[in-house]
Amino acid sequence: MSARERRYRYVGPAELKTAVRPGSGGCRISSAAEFGGWIAGRSAAELAEPFTFVVNTDGVLRLAPRRSEHVACAGGGVVLSAGEIGFVREADVWAVSEVSNQSTGYCPDVTSWSAVARALDRIGLGRPSGFTHEVVFRRCPDCQERNIVREGDFVCVFCGSDLPEKWNVDSPA
What is the pLDDT of residues 68-121, one digit of tens each? Predict the structure, then answer.
């Protein structure tokens, strides 16, 4: 992790974070062996859709079923990235088939890809060169609502105000 790497606090509904219990975080995957054991336990139905992931501040990937909340996967903690990830087995080797920063609870910037890439490289998984689906999050400076910017239109869907070009979802700690 670089000293300048952004850390993301949970910014979603408070009741979801309150529901997180100690030890309820996603499965910690810090090696190829851990990934192999985890993926072996997945059903064909589970593998047909992406999983929830976070990269904790220690740079380690955590995985959970798709419909899991990112804040639960992270055990309520701060993350370096969050989103959804899918895997495919090619020539007897597992690789990442799709990966996004789609997490409305953490709203990570697209620049969080570097943390994801390092975590996947540590495990030895083949991966794309970036998010296969990038989500651009911004907070409206006027109404304070979180927005997903679509097609480069930096306008708040709630109040019509202009959204900033730079990531601003979380206030400085």
Answer: 999 999 999 999 999 999 999 988 899 999 999 999 999 999 999 999 999 999
> Angle CA(12)–CA(16)–CA(1) in degrees, nearest 5?
60
* The pTM of the whole model exceeds 0.85: yes
Identify whether residues 158 and 79 lie together within a single domain: no
Give 43: exposed, middle or buried? Use CB within 10 Å, 0-12, 13-18, 19+.
Answer: exposed
CA distances from 39 to 25, 45, 46, 84, 171 (A): 17, 12, 10, 15, 37
**For residue 172, what pLDDT band results from cuts at 50, 70 and 90?**
low
Check whether 4 has a pLDDT greater than 90: no
Buried b (16+ CB within 10 A) or exposed e, 161-172: eebeeebbbbee
For residues 66 and 143, membership in a common domain is answered with: no
Q: Tell me phi and psi for residue 51, to 5 degrees.
A: -105, 160
- Are 32 and 88 contained in the same domain? yes
CA-to-CA distance for 95 and 136, rounded, in angstroms? 25
pLDDT value at position 83? 98
Q: Could you give the 3-state DSSP secondary structure of residue 57?
A: coil
